Amino acid sequence: xxxxxxxxxxxxxxxxxxxxxxxxxxxxxxxxxxxxxxxxxxxxxxxxxxxxxxxxxxxxxxxxxxxxxxxxxxxxxxxxxxxxxxxxxxxxxxxxxxxxxxxxxxxxxxxxxxxxxxxxxxxxxxxxxxxxxxxxxxxxxxxxxxxxxxxxxxxxxxxxxxxxxxxxxxxxxxxxxxxxxxxxxxxxxxxxxxxxxxxxxxxxxxxxxxxxxxxxxxxxxxxxxxxxxxxxxxxxxxxxxxxxxxxxxxxxxxxxxxxxxxxxxxxxxxxxxxxxxxxxxxxxxxxxxxxxxxxxxxxxxxxxxxxxxxxxxxxxxxxxxxxxxxxxxxxxxxxxxxxxxxxxxxxxxxxxxxxxxxxxxxxxxxxxxxxxxxxxxxxxxxxxxxxxxxxxxxxxxxxxxxxxxxxxxxxxxxxxxxxxxxxxxxxxxxxxxxxxxxxxxxxxxxxxxxxxxxxxxxxxxxxxxxxxxxxxxxxxxxxxxxxxxxxxxxxxxxxxxxxxxxxxxxxxxxxxxxxxxxxxxxxxxxxxxxxxxxxxxxxxxxxxxxxxxxxxxxxxxxxxxxxxxxxxxxxxxxxxxxxxxxxxxxxxxxxxxxxxxxxxxxxxxxxxxxxxxxxxxxxxxxxxxxxxxxxxxxxxxxxxxxxxxxxxxxxxxxxxxxxxxxxxxxxxxxxxxxxxxxxxxxxxxxxxxxxxxxxxxxxxxxxxxxxxxxxxxxxxxxxxxxxxxxxxxxxxxxxxxxxxxxxxxxxxxxxxxxxxxxx
Length: 759
Description:
The chain is α/β, with parallel strands linked by helices. The protein has 20 helices and 27 strands.
């Protein structure tokens, strides 16, 4: 008795330390927040029946009946019978010895703390988010369902289901079907006949489906409809059953500690009075995982796969009922229902969660959104690519954005106060070992950390973008063991491009207010005009193919132009100047100022929203560009004989949806996007101008004006390169100029000699 009393005192002290106090305890004596209570029973009294458990411990609505015993204590037959009755009544009774105290502590703490993932519960049951199933051949959900279908309905039905679950079937999918075809008959042969598949169980609080329930030999079956409208078992003579659950897995250990079958037994017996589940089994069907060797053909591999499948055998794993598993389940359920906050709980099961990418990385492409229109005015995120000459103020301008984080590659952060991560090779020395982490790995790790959104930054800046591309190139070469891409030119450039663009796409999709990409300006490449003249292009210092892809990810591409102390942000774009974006900015140059940029950005975005709402309206006809405007480059077309000239497209033929997508509510947009159109002349204001001849030197004239606005345009040439002068371009008398036709002045055309090809 002394030993039992000492053990009881230990138990009570520990319970109070966990916030579980004796019933009626004053609040001012509670040292920890209360989460439950206990009450003591004394057996043999006038009003207390003998054989009742010593203590009732109630924790967050879950009651535990506990019979305490010393190490050498022996429960009476009456006590054992009462504990058995408590457990068979879907309640929880224990005979607790000091040796099991630590295990009991774990049970109590499990009841106190919600140890599943509340965030997953919120996504699935509160928000009702569905995910797009992946199409990998070894998709566990699809394979598991195919296995169940095959055991119940046959191999052919299983293969039909598996094939219909994928849009495209590859050799790997065929391999998985071979495995199913071999293992399903073996699994089915291990089950006794006469059972019921997919039997629903539960009530208003719980719904589940048992894979296979079989009456013990001698039981009588009687079919009747249950509350789910499906046929269920009705036992008339014998009330004992065996329960089987199918698992297509090699990890039998994880199912050994699973509470699934324990919960099935609890709810089935609770909702079917008089029925008892005698035995419970997991039918473990092993997954055969062998890979095709580089030295063997597909036919040879499949022959080896068939030999391996012949030796693979399913197994039955018995499960001993444990009511504590049900306690855990009921506790978790209660906490879920009552929860108001749903924190994330990362654990080793995250790899099997359908929300893993969304939860850990913020990727939402696997989620199916609600079927409702979005409010575009609510979108405030800005994604901008800025380039310019060194020391033009790019980094200083990015520093003006709110709460920035610099991913810096060149060390140019002395004159900005934003926090930064240095994107460079890092070397650590551990004893005699020297470890190197390449710059691209540092950059990729930074992106992965930003995806978690466990910070308060609002702006992410990449400075410089071309340096990250070079870091990616070095990383791929190092990983593949190449000295240069030429070592494997067939794959190398594509691998570098794919790795770089995929990571940058992850970056620009981050849920931050501003994403700023910074590049240096490159003037080293020349463009040859049709006249033979060469002119330097102005573009970001990045491979052209890669630059075009990045430009498609951002809202705007802007260039910083520095003239001594005067700096402007230019949105001009032409065949010479790289630029553009999905938003149309009508004010082509603004001061290099954060507030001025935000004003222009909001104006362009609001116009794009307005154009989308008015998508069915007829666009306004643009006015032809004049010498006074000089804001918009005309369309560029090659010279053709007059007989081959095609008329300008009618404004009525322009698709309103395309115009809206380009963000041009005023109707100044031309088909193809941007400010210029490489496929068709600019629309004319008067229908009778379409047959006017084109000036063969118009392209050069407009280009000169674009480079130097002080050079005037010819007033006789409109934005479509058509000459309105009487007699057309042929009316210009020749002069001794070697540059083709003469320059145009505000007074008209000066003569020029005929081109050699025209002579």
